Amino acid sequence: MTHNMDGYCTQFSTAEVRRARWHPGSTNDSHLLVLTSENSFHLYECELGEKPRLMKNWKVGPSPSRSPSKIPNFASLGDTAVDFDFATPTLRPDVEEKNVETEKINWNQIEWPILVLRENGDVFIVHNVLTGNPSKPIVLGSLSMYPPADDNYGIDSCSILCIQTTPPLVVIAACSGKIYHAILLREAFEDEDKKTWSERGSTYSLHTPDDALFVFECVEMELGLFFKDNDKKYSCSIHLHSDKSNRSRYFCSHNAGIHVVSLPLVSQLDDYIAVREEHADLYLPSFSKHSSSQYLVCTRTKHTREDEATPILGLGLFQEPCMLIALLHTGVVIDLTIVDLYYLPKIDSPEPLISPNKRVNKEPFDVHIRNLLQHEITQPITKLSLQSKLTVQEYLELLYRATHIFRTQHFVRHDKVREELGKKARTLKALKNHQMKELDILMETRKELQQAAEHLAERYEDIKDNQEYLARRAEEVLRLMNHKKPTMTVSERADAAELKKMDQKVKELVVRLEQLKRKATQQAKRLENYETLEKKKEIVLSETQDNAVKSHLSQMTKDIAELTLQVKSLEDDVEI
To answer: Can you say whether the dihedral through the CA atoms of 398, 404, 409, 411 is positive or negative?
Structure first.
């Protein structure tokens, strides 16, 4: 595959395309990033219905030399960029320096760093690729790798993959079948030990990186089917494919078939990020569970010719359920349902099931069965070319190998699982019988408790009635006590004093009334005597005297009437 480098070096120069990926940070999904064999990147804008437009290009290393000199050039030393991938998005360095608030960050302030892999295992980071700044992106490299290795973890690196976790997990594949898993973290420098060098060339420059790769494990894949330890191993380029639905695994396609690799550390990192800060120490990632690979499809054996190409021409994934579709070198399309025994779906619980003081490490039964079914050696589906002419002995060897693997790796484990399931079934049956007996005992206890509850309810009703009767009696006693209480209130004493005053007035009025009655009787007697005497004397009064007597009598009558009314009023007041 060739790529026209128009407007870059010369008009007629061509270079091989090593890798092309769509930029995930493109707002309209129209930016294509291409890595060529001349250690250069080309960023194109491919809008729908328009011709692709070259936006920028830059170098990540010197261009390979094409001189016929016998001196080894940098390509023979493994300094050629072979692959790249996008790391987890971060804030641009200029945005981080300004301490911008998280709520105010927009899409333009986020960048997607690019991890570039060289054939000798060096990894570079490229920043500011999709910014509006017309200057070239910043190339940082190479990243330090810990623990350090003499061969820099291989000199035949061929592919790189970055899994979008926090922190990012970087996968580096070598042609020998070894895959290195590393964590991309910020490297801690002492002030006096911090690097300050910067390598510069005529068309590119390398700056000191702040990040480093911390390799924590190596997975070695079986490339092709071999029968003995002394069989000549096969090496080829390995292509890494991410699984968008499950970050705990990825796929590898190569000239010998297809592998799937599991990553238990991904779920551990997710748990560590999601847990509360006070429980963070309990969820520190553990490396007790190592990553493992399963051989899904095999296209080569030790009898395949060395020059025979058996690549995987295409690979795709369908989700729910996960199904792999691959186009083989023979033109055959195969589909496989992926059953991952190393992946456990995460079940969210409403409350954490751990103690803040210690972590419970009891293994569930389904996890125990999955661990028993795990095996180091897998038997892939063999898809050989129709042109392969194997002898009867070679077919027998292939059949014997498959039989041996099934007997030693699969059937033995299945027998062990059957024994475990039988033990679990017997245990559950005994537990069921025990629980049934306990249930009968609990039912009898329930009946007894129900009868006791009914008896207590009856007693409660009787006690309640007695309590109400005693409450009524207490109220009556209190009422009588308050009624016969010797002491009176202030208002009662005021009313009693008022009544005493009124009683005294009534007594005085009664005395006066008696006096008036006696006076009235005396006046009546005098009047009778006077009339008798007058009749006897026949005294004739003058008109003036007659009027005076009448007026005096009328006045006395009025006074008597008024006194009579006052006496009645007083009698009404005292209710006599």
So the answer is: positive
| DSSP helix/strand/coil, 385 | coil
Beta strands in 92-137 (DSSP E): 110-111, 114-118, 123-127
Pairing assessment for the beta strands 199-200 and 205-206 based on DSSP bridges: antiparallel
The dihedral formed by the CA atoms of 185, 191, 192 and 197, expressed in degrees to the nearest 10: 60
Q: What size, in residues, is the chain? A: 576
User: Are residues 215 and 147 in contact, defined by beta-carbon separation less than 8 angstroms?
Assistant: yes
Q: Which of 206, 209, 213 is nearest to 180 (CA)?
A: 213
Identify which of 507, 505, 517, 527 has the alpha carbon closest to the alpha carbon of residue 560: 517
The sign of the torsion formed by the CA atoms of 454, 459, 465, 468 equals negative
Three-state SS at 423:
helix
Provide the token pair at 221.
């894949």
**Residue 114 token pair:** 């690019």
In three-state secondary structure terms, 34 is: strand
- Return the structure tokens found at 418: 């059957």
CB 44 within 8 A of CB 4: no
Q: How far apart are CA 247 and CA 237, in angstroms?
A: 23
Tokens 């295409």 appear where? 314
Confidence check: pLDDT of 8 > 50: no
Q: Where are the beta strands (DSSP E) in 330-380?
A: 333-337
Average pLDDT for the chain: 80
Q: Which of 145, 120, 2 is nearest to 61 (CA)?
A: 120
- The strand pair at 211-220 and 238-242 is best described as unpaired
pLDDT tens-place string over residues 215-231: 999 999 888 887 676 77
- Give the integer Cα–Cα distance in Å for 101 and 109: 12
Contacts of 573 (CB under 8 A, 6+ apart): 502, 506
The C-alpha angle with vertex 279 and arms to 273 and 282, in degrees rounded to 5, equals 85
Q: Which two tokens stand for residue 384?
A: 């050989």
Q: Which residue has the tokens 């000239």?
A: 255
Check the CA dihedral 131-133-136-137 and report its sign.
negative
From CA 576, how far away is CA 573, in angstroms rounded?
8
Q: Count the helix, strand and coil residues of the chain and give each as a percent rounded to the nearest 5.
A: 35, 25, 40
Give, in degrees to the nearest 5, the angle at Cα 565 between 560 and 566: 95
Token output for 280: 């963070």
Q: Which one-letter amino acid corresponds to residue 204?
A: Y
In this predicted structure, what is the pLDDT of residue 135?
66
Strand extents, DSSP E, 263-380? 292-298, 312-318, 323-328, 333-337
- Collect contacts of 465-468 with beta carbons under 8 A, ≥24 apart: none
3-state secondary structure of 313: strand
Q: Is the pTM of this model over 0.85?
A: no
3-state secondary structure 206-254: EECCCEEEEEEEEEECCCCECCCCCCCCCCCCEEEEECCCCCCEEEEEE
At residue 71, the pLDDT reads 46
